[in-house]
Each structure stands twice: as C-alpha cells, then as structure tokens.
C-alpha cells in the first residue's frame, strides 16, 4: 500500500508543472481541487467497478498473497490513468473513450470471473491500456494538479479495496468472484450496446 501511495504522490508531483499550462477541463474547470479529484472516481460506477476489478483480479490470480506480487497491474493502471488524464488535459484526442471504458469492464469482468492469469507484463499492459482511456475521461473533466492528485489517490485506494477483496476471497469462494466478474461483464456489455 505504501508503494501505491508513493507512486500516486510522485505522479502528482510530476503532473503539477505541466498542468500549469494546460487548458481547463471540458466543464470550464468546475471540477478542480483535491476533493473534487478524490471523489471523482467514486461517482462514476464504470470507473469504480473497473478500479476495484483490477485489484481483485490481481489478488485472485497472483501466485502469492504478497502485496508486492499483487500490485503490478494496479500500479500500472494508476500510472497510466494519470498519463491519460495529462494527455487529455493537453488536448490529445482519444478515439472512442466511452466504448473503451465499457470494453474494459467487459474484459476485466471476464478476467475476474475466469480467474484468468496473464504474464505480469501482459496484465500490466492490458490494464494500463484501458487506464489511458479512463484517465482521458477524467482528464477532460478535472482541472489542475490537485484534482489529478486526488484522482490518483482515490484510484489507489479503490485498487487496494479490490486487492483486499480478492485476497479475502482466495480459497474461500469460487462463486463470488465469478458472479462479481459476470456482473461486470453484463454492465460493460450493456454500456457497449447503448
């Protein structure tokens, strides 16, 4: 957990200088400040589900229950979430943000439901790729370094909650992760079909 907090703080510190020249968010900067950024991931069920799913999947499929072994994919997600937000704040256009977020829910749900392991680099790359789109969605709505720092900290906490959930379910229940994963799949598919 300390590693994730240090990563979040480092990302926020790196973001501050570049954000001084960035344009305000699509909402003309209505979402600024640490509190707005911190609450942002909790207010969108799609983002919340994805972030908890990343943690749960990491814990369910890790070879050991050591937090460091479980934290690679969540750390990748948090880092690339910030990168996506910074890119969006710098007016880098992302195609199909909402469909990619929906696809992330579908894919992450399948990974959780099936407890599908991937090589560490592949898992980190997969969730990191999805995180760029989640970050771009946030980056278009949040303004300023404090808001992005809050967003990254909340993301790390949601990943930690998912890790704790996944570790708690390891060896205890085969069906609960499957049901939760399938619920994410259905949610993602419903968003894709809208």
Structure characterization notes:
By secondary structure, this protein is mainly alpha-helical. Strands 1-2 form a two-stranded parallel sheet. 77% of the residues lie in helices and 2% in strands. The protein has helices spanning 2-19, 34-43, 45-61, 67-70, 72-89, 97-114, 120-139, 145-169, 175-193; strands at 31-32, 142-143.
Please sum up the structure shown:
This protein has 194 residues and is mainly alpha-helical. It is 77% helix and 2% strand. Helix 3 (45-61) runs antiparallel to helix 5 and helix 3 crosses helix 8.
Write the layout of secondary structure elements.
Layout (H helix, E strand, L loop, with lengths): L1 H18 L11 E2 L1 H10 L1 H17 L5 H4 L1 H18 L7 H18 L5 H20 L2 E2 L1 H25 L5 H19 L1
Parallel strand pairs: 1-2
Helix pairs in contact: 1-5, 1-8, 2-8, 3-5, 3-6, 3-8, 3-9, 5-7, 5-8, 6-7, 6-9
Spatially, the strands of the biggest sheet line up as 1-2
Order of helices and strands: HEHHHHHHEHH
Tell me the β content. Answer: under 5%
Counting H and I runs of at least 4 residues, what is the number of helices? 9
Spans of 5+ residues with little confidence (pLDDT < 50)? 1-29
What's the number of extended β-strand segments?
2
What general outline do the C-alpha atoms trace?
globular
Q: What structural category characterises the helix and strand content?
A: mainly alpha
Profile the largest sheet.
Answer: 2 strands, parallel
End-to-end gap: 37 Å
Q: What is the alpha-carbon Rg in Å?
A: 16 Å
Helix coverage percent? over 70%
Mean pLDDT: 83
């Amino acid at each position: 957990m300390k590693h994730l907090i240090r990563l979040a703080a480092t990302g926020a510190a790196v973001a501050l200088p570049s954000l001084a020249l960035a344009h305000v968010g699509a909402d003309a900067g209505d979402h600024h400040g640490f509190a707005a950024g911190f609450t942002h991931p909790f207010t969108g069920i799609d983002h919340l589900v994805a972030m908890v799913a990343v943690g749960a999947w990491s814990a369910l499929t890790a070879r050991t229950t050591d937090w460091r072994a479980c934290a690679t994919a969540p750390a990748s997600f948090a880092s690339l979430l910030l990168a996506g937000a910074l890119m969006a704040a710098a007016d880098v256009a992302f195609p199909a943000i909402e469909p990619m977020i929906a696809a992330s829910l579908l894919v992450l749900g399948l990974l959780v439901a099936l407890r599908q392991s991937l090589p560490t680099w592949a898992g980190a790359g997969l969730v990191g790729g999805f995180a760029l789109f989640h970050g771009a969605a946030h980056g278009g709505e949040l303004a300023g370094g404090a808001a992005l720092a809050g967003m990254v900290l909340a993301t790390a906490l949601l990943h930690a909650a998912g890790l704790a959930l996944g570790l708690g379910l390891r060896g205890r229940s085969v069906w609960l992760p499957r049901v939760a994963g399938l619920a994410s799949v259905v949610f993602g598919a419903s968003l894709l079909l809208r």
